[in-house]
Amino acid sequence: MRSVQLPGFAMAAGAIGFGCASLGSRVAPADGVRAMAEAHAAGVNWFDVAPAYGAGDAESILGTFARGRRDQLLICTKVGLAPPQRNALLKSAYAAARPLVGALKGLRKAFRRIPATRNVAVPLTPALLVESLERSLRRLGTDHVDVFALHKPVHADIARDDILQALSDLRRAGKVRHVGVAGDAHAAQLALAHPDVYTVLQLADDPVDQPLRRLQAAAAGRLSFITHSVLGVDGMRERLTQALHAGGAPAVRRLTDAGYAGNAEQTVSQLLVDRALAANAGGVVLMSMFSSKHRAANIARAEGKVRPDAIELVADLLADGGRAAR
Ligand SMILES: NC(=O)c1ccc[n+]([C@@H]2O[C@H](COP(=O)([O-])OP(=O)(O)OC[C@H]3O[C@@H](n4cnc5c(N)ncnc54)[C@H](OP(=O)(O)O)[C@@H]3O)[C@@H](O)[C@H]2O)c1
Predict the structure, then answer these.
(1) Which residues line ligand 1 (CB under 6 A)?
(2) Measured between alpha carbons, how far is 60 from 28 in angstroms, rounded to an integer?
(3) How far is the CA of 186 from the centre of ligand 1 (A)?
């Protein structure tokens, strides 16, 4: 797989990183460990996790996988969101529903809409940062993380002196190699004002508004970008599939000429992954890829050449589809 050298990182990162949000909730622990091992064998070495992921179990499961391989992995964890409060009940519900939730998209969406499945924001204090990191390190079975990021922070917290100081202290102590902000585009924008502390910015890669482009220009190659929500911002995959249908034969021909083949859903997924890899060519693109089909498809895109033309293809398809719908 293509690898990227992020500024300040000793080890190169695979262009696609493994998103662990569903590890331990939708995805059973043993299946998750198997999927991560297969991805790692194919060149994936960036693993994105958080205390809240997998209803609170993702870090421990990632820790199981990392045993004996820690020095080959780059791990990003976060602070600021806790798993849902009625967690014991939720975990049994996840375990019971797994066979169905894995298979039925509608049921997965319904699960996410239930308030009891939502993570809970934890007010940030210097003490909380230290305690949360210590708990994460214990669960992950490691003495340091490569990135420690504020998870969907309240915007005002990003510039708080006590928070900046606590994060710098953790880095100086060697428990954290890089400090980041994992939130919305505005949070990333605010973090840019503190490049001495925040060197990793994680955000959704929205192909319409393209906040990443503006942030990359402002960062001028000094910061690392980690992007996610490649298929998903506001149902982007469905929108693009509709745009492809609306665009008719000329739209299909343009994609076929560009080498995209298969059914509409596969074509659109390939195109969006290529677009995300091209838009964040110097960074890491996070994907959930627990199913072997998705894993193979996404890794294959990261093994090919970067396709800057995918950025324009997506933009044109959306614009043409919008015009056809009017
Ligand atoms: N910082 C934040 O606030 C934040 C927010 C959201 C996400 N994230 C991180 O980003 C990671 C990815 O999250 P995401 O929301 O962007 O999810 P995603 O990668 O778009 O995955 C969403 C769903 O799409 C499926 N999928 C993956 N590749 C596919 C393909 N080629 N074709 C069709 N379906 C495919 C996945 O299935 P399978 O997994 O079953 O294969 C999953 O069910 C998370 O796990 C998390 O680590 C961070």
Answers:
(1) 19-21, 48, 152, 182, 202, 228-232, 269, 273, 286-291, 294, 297-298
(2) 13
(3) 21
Q: Which tokens sit at 297?
A: 């498809």
Tokens of 48: 């994105």
Reference 73, options 284, 307, 301; nearest CA is 284
Ordered domains of the chain (ranges, CATH):
3-83+119-235+276-306 (3.20.20.100)
pLDDT digits (tens, 9 = 90+) for 44-93: 999 999 999 999 999 999 999 999 999 999 999 999 999 987 667 677 77
Query: Encoding tokens for residue 111?
Result: 């699960």
Kindly state the tokens that stand for 19.
Answer: 């998103």
Place of tokens 């239930």: 114
Question: Alpha-carbon distance 45 to 311, whole Å?
Answer: 25
Residues 40/69, Cβ–Cβ less than 8 Å: yes
Query: How far is ligand 1, taken at its centre, from the CA of residue 16, in Å?
Result: 11
pLDDT by residue (tens digit) across 134-161?
A: 999 999 999 999 999 999 999 999 999 9
* Contact criterion met (CB below 8 Å) for 180 and 198: yes
Question: What DSSP string describes 243-262?
Answer: HHHHHHHHHHHHHHHTT--S
CA distance 198 to 224: 10
Please tell me the residue having the least CA distance from ligand 1 atom 19.
287
Measured in angstroms, how far is the CA atom of residue 107 from the centroid of ligand 1? 16
Distance of CA 180 to the CA centre of its chain: 13
**Dist. CA 227–CA 201, nearest whole Å:** 8
